[in-house]
User: What shape does this take?
Amino acid sequence: MEKKEVKSGKEILDDFFKYIEKMPEVNEEIAKSLASLYEQGKLTDTNVRNELQKLREKDGG
Assistant: This one.
């Protein structure tokens, strides 16, 4: 029987945020913002809301 290595939760999240910008149905600017927050260790609900608000304002509404 082949022994498979199980990824940790952090490894799964690292992979997800590494490739989020390449996902076809994900807005590129939102993906970049979320990935940046994750990399900085600042992925909180408040920071996500603030980033989304900045993108809305930048986009004109």
Notes: The helical segments are 9-19, 28-40, 45-58. Residues 45-58 form the longest helix (14 residues).
